Amino acid sequence: MPAACQLIVSFHDLHPGSRVQCDRFLAMCRECGVRRTTLLVVPRWHGAPPCDEDREFAAWLRERAEEGHEICLHAYLHRAEAVTGNAVQRAMGKHYTAGEGEFYQIDEAEAATRLREGLRIVRDGCGVPVWGFTAPAWLLSDGGRAALRKLGFHYTTRWGQVELLQSETAAAVSIPEEPVIDRSYSPACHPRRSGLRPDSPATAKEQPGGACPQASSTAMAGPSPGRLQASSYNGHGCRGRNIAAPVLVWSTRAAWRRVCSRSWVRLWGAWKRRSSVLRVAVHPVDFAYPSIEASVREAIARNLCGREAACYRDLLPEGTPPLGGGK
Prior knowledge:
Layout: E1 6-14, H1 19-32, E2 38-41, H2 55-66, E3 70-74, H3 87-96, H4 108-125, E4 130-134, H5 142-151, E5 155-158, E6 161-164, H6 167-171, E7 230-231, E8 241-244, E9 247-249, H7 255-271, E10 277-282, H8 290-304, E11 308-310
Parallel strand pairs: 1-2, 1-10, 1-11, 2-3, 3-4, 4-5, 9-10
Antiparallel strand pairs: 5-6, 6-8, 7-8
Helix pairs in contact: 4-5, 7-8
């Protein structure tokens, strides 16, 4: 587990039909100085043929894994059946997830079936290692979580947190005694105020005043470098640990959402700058709108200041093998 504060940049909803957008995403990341990302692969996007049947896509995915990018399983179909329950639950299924909350109300048996089939397609068929899972819209039922643990997944991501699912993995992660207190934020980390373009490849090490809050030994009170904010109880009766990891994400389904998202991402990133782990979550549709694409670029460049680009697997103890063994 690296000692520096971390920025995890991820691309969601990856499948053969979104490969072009992912290539644009990866090019953007390289221009900003990010060489390692997490790619969230959907095995059968909205019921399409398994992605491993597209041999060109499978070969492309293996190349990305060999370059150091992490492959994360992301749902199975990324499409939900009718959501049941009270008005709030139905609204979540219809409006918040846009009908894609596949693992929101899933039971353990069905979750296990879809997860096994997803692994068969992505891990075995495409030939890439897998450590973790992310549910659409970060909505995961208790049954889905139980299935993940029993199948040996090391982590799942949630809104604002990364949950370590295996007790032996969680036990190896250091827990801070108190929250990090940020006293070292500098406008130099802001690409515009520092004179850097958002797409500048310069990293935090090249920018004065860009020290990560956790890396400052004289201007903060808190844990030693490399220790993550976490709790030992995940709220669902499982023996895992949650690592605080705020996420910056954009909503694009309406013009007003796109306008609000750009402001929200900037404000939320500034508010959460003290976090040991910060995440930027990018979706294919973000590249359909130039203003959102520019906002994504700026968010990556700005928040990389003082941070080390990382993958989700970097939060695990060093040497943690992927599912099924191997490296």
